[in-house]
């Protein structure tokens, strides 16, 4: 009782001091709230002075601020009638038309109160707002922190409900500008994320045109509040989380359930293998349709990865011991292609004969992002890293920024696996039997790491060639697998059974399926060159190596300058020739081609019509 009387006397003294100041244009009524007795916090956790004042009092503004109030940042009392939905503009924030007048009138009556407002919220979504735009939310969160510390949990809950009921609308252009800046600042040399921002901007513009206007309606966010334990400071924190799916892209994005990239690759390989088994040309219109759907899905994943820090499901960290004030629960924008799946999809598309260079670059970029995420963890084995780089090499993906970045990350991961965290050069993860190497008892990881770093690792390295050989020898055993893959997607793609079985009334759509596959002037840039023929070429790796070779081996028994030759590979397997033609196309080898034909017919046509030396 004595404490209450002392507190009342002290507060009355404050009122007398304020009322005696003639220069002050503000007056306050201090409402003394008689709370029930609560547990006093231990001395080590005493609240700050601002919280002590707010413990027993609630400030209610009576008069409008003075003319010079505009020189100071606006402050808000706990009872401030803040508009539950305000739109952030390029020059500041403005309220929705439904309640802008009431909000502005209440805003003008806000006066300074003794609540410390923190400005250390470094969450990327929050940083989309200016300090002035964040101020109303910061003040309410600070009031909630003070109320919780003082034990006034009823008031704290009221403030939380008000915060969770508020909505903040941020213009898309501001979000995309921030995403572009963040993407350009990435430390890799891959433009995957940068392209994602640009494509998402184009998607929004198209959606606006379809809507018949050019108004940037913006993205609506809700406020998510989390409380820090009293032992760690007792504060409250907040972030912005998307309140709904962006309305501009409804109906424009791919369907993630139907357009799963790995399943599309599975279907493409099934179609090509089924057609090859039946001895008919695959329908490349249907096959390329699967590739286009996969490309659209990867476009959406690019946009999701670029905008993940701004549009992902987020939550404030409840612990202040973390390195960041907020923890973003954002994904890497890889969707269903987590782990090793992007590399598997790349190989399956390559085996089906698809030659879309951009599709493979995007898949390699996703594989790089995933390997960067988990490759150095103890749960990732050396064979998992090798699985990714081997399949990318088996797909015949040429040198470029995306493949170079993947190989650098893989080399770093393998070096960590070799060291094993203890300084040793071998551990259980790098033994030969761990990666299925049954011949020789081990793998030369040092040589593989060196080849990854200098870019020489590729299709003609030992491990990728071994993988292709295993695939070709197991092909007969996998017939049921391929057939089921094609049948499985019959209902998904709404196509005809003939298309999914791989049948086509037209040509293959590549050199190997033309009615006249021996049109030499169309097949080679210079048909007068000497012709190198590989009968039974299989998947064409020998000719792919010779055609891309620019060196003359002085030790060879037959001295041939391969760069001055044309090359043709012949095989009866449409699946093998389709793969070889796809790799040839991506490598831009104008002196190499493959055809599906018998050895007798091929040699007869060459003997009768080839204009050059043979």
- Major sheet: size, sense and barrel closure? 5 strands, mixed
Unreliable stretches (pLDDT < 50, length at least 5) are 21-83, 89-116, 314-332, 421-441, 494-514
Distance N terminus to C terminus?
112 Å
Task: Tell me the fraction of residues in β-strands, as a range.
Answer: 5-15%
Computed Rg: 34 Å
Number of spatially distinct domains:
3
Number of helices in the DSSP assignment: 22
The largest sheet has its strands arranged as 4-3-5-6-7
Roughly what percent helix? 40-55%
**Broad structural category:** alpha/beta
Query: Kindly state the mean pLDDT as a whole number?
Result: 71
* Assembly form of the protein: single chain
Strand tally is 10
Morphology: elongated
Keywords: Methyltransferase, S-adenosyl-L-methionine, Signal, Transferase, tRNA processing
Catalytic activity: guanosine(46) in tRNA + S-adenosyl-L-methionine = N(7)-methylguanosine(46) in tRNA + S-adenosyl-L-homocysteine
EC number: 2.1.1.33
Protein name: tRNA (guanine(46)-N(7))-methyltransferase
């Amino acid at each position: 009782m004595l404490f209450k009387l002392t507190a009342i006397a002290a507060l009355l003294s404050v009122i007398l001091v304020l009322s005696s100041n003639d220069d002050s244009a503000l007056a306050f009524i201090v409402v003394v709230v008689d709370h029930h007795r609560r547990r006093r916090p231990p001395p080590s956790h005493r609240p700050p002075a601002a919280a002590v004042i707010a413990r027993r009092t609630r400030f209610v503004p009576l008069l409008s601020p003075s003319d010079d109030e505009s020189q100071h940042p606006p402050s808000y009392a706990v009872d401030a009638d803040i508009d539950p939905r305000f739109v952030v503009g390029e020059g500041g924030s403005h309220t929705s038309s439904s309640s802008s007048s009431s909000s502005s009138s209440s805003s003008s009556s806000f006066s300074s109160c003794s609540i410390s407002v923190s400005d250390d919220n470094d969450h990327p979504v929050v940083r989309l707002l200016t300090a002035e735009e964040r101020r109303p939310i910061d003040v309410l969160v600070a009031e909630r922190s003070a109320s919780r510390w003082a034990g006034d949990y009823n008031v704290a809950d009221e403030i939380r409900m008000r915060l969770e009921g508020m909505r903040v609308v941020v213009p898309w252009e501001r979000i995309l500008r921030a995403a572009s800046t963040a993407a350009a600042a990435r430390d890799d040399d891959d433009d995957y994320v940068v392209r994602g921002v640009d494509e998402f901007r184009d998607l929004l513009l198209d959606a606006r045109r379809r809507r018949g206007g050019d108004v940037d309606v913006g993205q609506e966010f809700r406020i998510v509040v989390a409380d820090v334990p009293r032992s760690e400071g007792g504060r409250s924190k907040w972030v912005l989380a998307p309140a709904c799916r962006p309305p501009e892209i409804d109906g424009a994005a791919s369907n993630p359930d139907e357009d799963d990239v790995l399943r599309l690759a599975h279907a493409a390989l099934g179609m090509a293998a089924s057609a090859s088994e039946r001895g008919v040309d695959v329908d490349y219109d249907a096959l390329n349709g699967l590739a286009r759907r996969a490309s659209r899905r990867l476009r959406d994943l690019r946009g999701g990865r670029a905008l993940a820090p701004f549009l992902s499901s987020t939550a404030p960290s409840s612990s202040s011991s973390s390195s960041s004030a907020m923890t973003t629960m954002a994904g890497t924008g890889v969707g269903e292609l987590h782990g090793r799946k992007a590399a598997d999809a790349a190989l399956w598309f390559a085996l089906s004969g698809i030659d879309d260079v951009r599709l493979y670059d995007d898949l390699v970029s996703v594989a790089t992002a995933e390997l960067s995420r988990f490759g150095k963890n103890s749960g990732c084995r050396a064979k998992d890293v090798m699985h990714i780089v081997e399949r990318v090499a088996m797909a015949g993906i040429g040198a470029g920024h995306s493949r170079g970045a993947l190989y650098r990350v893989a080399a770093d991961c393998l070096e960590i696996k070799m060291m094993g965290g203890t300084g040793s050069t071998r551990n259980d993860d790098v033994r030969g039997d761990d990666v299925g190497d049954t011949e020789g008892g081990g793998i030369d990881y040092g040589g593989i790491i060196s080849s990854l770093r200098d870019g020489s690792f590729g299709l003609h390295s030992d491990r990728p060639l071994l993988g292709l050989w295993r695939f070709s020898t197991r092909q007969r055993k996998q017939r049921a697998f391929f057939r089921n893959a094609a049948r499985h997607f019959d209902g998904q793609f709404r196509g005809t059974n003939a298309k999914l079985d791989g049948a086509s009334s037209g040509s293959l759509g590549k050199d190997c399926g033309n009615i006249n596959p021996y049109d030499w002037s169309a097949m080679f840039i210079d048909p007068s060159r000497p012709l190198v023929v590989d009968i039974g070429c299989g998947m064409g790796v020998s000719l792919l190596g010779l055609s891309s070779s620019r060196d003359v081996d002085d030790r060879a028994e037959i001295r041939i300058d391969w760069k001055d030759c044309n090359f043709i590979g012949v095989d009866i397997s449409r699946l093998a020739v389709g793969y070889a033609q796809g790799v040839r196309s991506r490598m831009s080898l104008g002196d190499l081609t493959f055809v599906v034909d018998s050895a007798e017919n091929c040699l007869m046509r060459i003997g009768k019509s080839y204009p050059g030396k043979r």
